[in-house]
């Protein structure tokens, strides 16, 4: 079996790895590190959870330990699609480079340019950045990329989803032709293939199996759910989510709940909180300090439920998550693989449960095709009877506060087309938000009268009038249950 000592790493790096508690290299590390140390370009096909971060950071630290940084000219560059992922790479760098004098700067949105400029001015060995922020610095004339000897592109498939490929191409062109490139992607979409053919030079291709195709330790299930009425879908799905959580009981130590849209992430987190669950949202519209706080609380076991969008959760290294709940079926099959890959890590058992409404069935079929297996159908814990209607009335409250999910354009894709870091692409236009509130308020009015009068159709004119009864007190005809259309005045046709 390959050991870390066999890989050719610097002794200082080896001792940091030992301190990190790693005993043996993961398959991607065993395969990628020797090629990287030999100066080869590497095309790594691997997803998070495989140890791929160390597979590029360890050789980088080894190779950079010779030489010194110059002002404004970083010696290496790591590009990551999101702030969280970039911050995570930076944390990894701190661990593995702790016995060296190498310096780093993290360029991400939400952090002041001034602080970042000061670091770059001094000269850094490793620059870790999101593409948009890096180009912002470059355009302000604060940065030269001509000294980059090693360039890493992490999670290239997510960069593609987020619309970053033109930025990546531009950054490639700003770095020297002689640089070494380490390029990582979970999948090889044609566009990714094109980029690697253009910018990588005779790369060594290393590939490790995907979690979803081999993840025997992740037990998966999907509840096929049809709402009682289309307009109740959102609130009934939230009821179902709570019921699923309850059914898992104490085994559900902590969970990430994935939603397709950021607005939905907020609504679900708010609704869970209202019912006493320890939940908080994380998505790209929240400010950086809040995202960091939430993530730290979740990592430290102080927060039980993290409601997340794909982009925000991408690449998050959260060890030992017991459950994944897919509140929505992801519209990109690949995202399913990434989502459930957050559980069942490091040999632990994990459960991944998903809610599928009729309109999601096509996406479910795509996922099953991708993972080449049928996801077992599991029972709906609420199938025996829906929660009390009172639940729905209460649960409706968050919807009046926030945008009604149904008001969003149905075609929008939560994890695509973005600019710097993350774009609020699933934010409804202000008008849509106002309209949705109005519609929500209109929709709710009869519900209110239903709870007071027991009527579903709010027959204002009938309220207060006792139903006609016969001499034994029996209701004549339909009594109080006369449908509204029968009570509407009409003009009798003239004879
Ligand atoms: P990554 O795929 O880079 O996100 O890494 C996933 C997790 O695996 C992180 O928590 C790493 O600290 C951990 N890890 C990386 N390499 C090893 C290793 N060789 N042995 C044990 N854990 C590791």
Fold blueprint:
Layout: H1 11-19, H2 27-37, E1 42-45, H3 52-64, E2 76-79, H4 83-96, E3 104-107, H5 113-122, E4 126-129, H6 131-139, E5 150-153, H7 156-161, H8 165-174, E6 180-185, H9 190-199, E7 204-207, H10 211-214, E8 218-224, H11 233-248, E9 255-258, H12 262-274, E10 279-282, H13 288-299, E11 305-308, H14 310-313, E12 323-326, H15 333-340, E13 350-356, H16 361-371, H17 389-395, H18 397-401, H19 430-453, H20 484-487
Parallel strand pairs: 1-6, 1-7, 2-4, 2-5, 3-4, 5-6, 8-13, 9-11, 9-12, 10-11, 12-13
Descriptive labels:
495 residues; alpha/beta; Rossmann fold; 2 domains; 7-stranded parallel β-sheet; 6-stranded parallel β-sheet; 20 helices; globular; binds adenosine monophosphate
3D architecture notes:
With 495 residues, the chain is of the alpha/beta class. It folds into 2 domains: 4-207, P-loop containing nucleotide triphosphate hydrolases (Rossmann fold, 3-Layer(aba) Sandwich), CATH 3.40.50; 218-371, P-loop containing nucleotide triphosphate hydrolases (Rossmann fold, 3-Layer(aba) Sandwich), CATH 3.40.50. The chain contains 20 helices and 13 strands. The strands form 2 sheets. A 7-stranded parallel sheet has the order 3-4-2-5-6-1-7, sandwiched between helices. It has a 6-stranded parallel sheet with strand order 8-13-12-9-11-10, with helices on both faces. The longest helix has 24 residues, at 430-453. It starts with 10 loop residues before the first helix and ends in an 8-residue tail after the last helix. The structure holds adenosine monophosphate. Residues 22, 25-26, 29, 48-54, 317, 319 line the site of adenosine monophosphate.
């Amino acid at each position: 079996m390959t050991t870390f000592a066999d890989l050719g790493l610097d002794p200082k790096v080896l001792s940091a790895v030992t301190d990190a508690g790693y005993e043996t290299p993961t398959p991607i590390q065993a395969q990628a590190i020797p090629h990287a140390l030999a100066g080869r370009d590497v095309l790594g096909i691997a997803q998070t959870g495989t140890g791929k971060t160390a597979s590029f950071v360890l050789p980088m630290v080894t190779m950079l330990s010779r030489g010194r940084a110059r002002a404004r000219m970083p010696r290496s560059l790591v590009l990551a699609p999101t702030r969280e992922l970039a911050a995570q790479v930076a944390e990894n760098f701190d661990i593995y480079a702790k016995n060296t004098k190498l310096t780093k700067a993290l360029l991400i949105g939400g952090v002041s340019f001034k602080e970042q400029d000061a670091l770059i001015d001094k000269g850094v060995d490793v620059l870790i950045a999101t593409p948009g922020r890096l180009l912002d610095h470059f355009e302000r004339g604060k940065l030269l990329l001509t000294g980059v000897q090693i360039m890493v592109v992490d999670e290239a498939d997510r960069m593609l989803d987020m619309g970053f490929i033109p930025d990546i191409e531009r950054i490639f062109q700003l770095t020297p032709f002689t640089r070494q490139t380490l390029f990582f992607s979970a999948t090889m979409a044609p566009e990714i293939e094109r980029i690697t053919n253009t910018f990588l030079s005779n790369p060594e291709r290393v590939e490790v199996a995907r979690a979803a195709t081999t993840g025997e330790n992740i037990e998966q299930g999907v509840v096929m759910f049809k709402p009682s009425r289309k307009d109740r879908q959102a609130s009934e799905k939230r009821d179902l989510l709570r019921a699923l959580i309850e059914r898992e009981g104490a085994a559900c130590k902590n969970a990430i709940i994935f939603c397709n849209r950021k607005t939905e992430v907020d609504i679900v987190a708010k609704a869970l909180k209202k019912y006493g669950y320890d939940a908080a949202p994380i998505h790209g519209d929240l400010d950086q300090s809040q995202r960091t706080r939430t993530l730290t609380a979740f990592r430290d076991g102080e927060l039980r439920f993290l409601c997340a969008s794909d982009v925000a959760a991408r690449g998050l290294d959260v060890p030992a998550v017991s459950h994944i709940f897919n509140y929505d079926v992801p519209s990109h099959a690949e995202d399913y693989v990434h989502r459930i890959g957050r559980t069942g890590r490091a040999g632990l058992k994990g459960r991944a449960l998903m809610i599928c409404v009729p309109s999601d069935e096509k996406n479910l079929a795509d996922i099953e095709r991708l993972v080449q297996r049928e996801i077992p159908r599991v029972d709906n814990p609420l199938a025996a009877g829906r929660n009390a209607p009172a639940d729905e009335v209460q649960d409706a409250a968050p919807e009046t506060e926030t945008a009604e999910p149904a008001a969003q354009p149905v075609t929008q894709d939560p994890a695509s087309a973005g600019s710097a870091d993350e774009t609020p692409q699933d934010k409804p236009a202000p008008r849509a938000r106002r309209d949705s509130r109005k519609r929500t308020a209109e929709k709710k009015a009869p519900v209110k009268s239903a709870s007071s009068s027991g009527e579903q159709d709010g027959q204002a004119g009938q309220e207060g009038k006792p139903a006609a009864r016969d001499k034994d007190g029996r209701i004549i005809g339909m009594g109080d249950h006369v449908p509204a259309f029968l009570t509407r005045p009409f003009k009798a046709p003239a004879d």
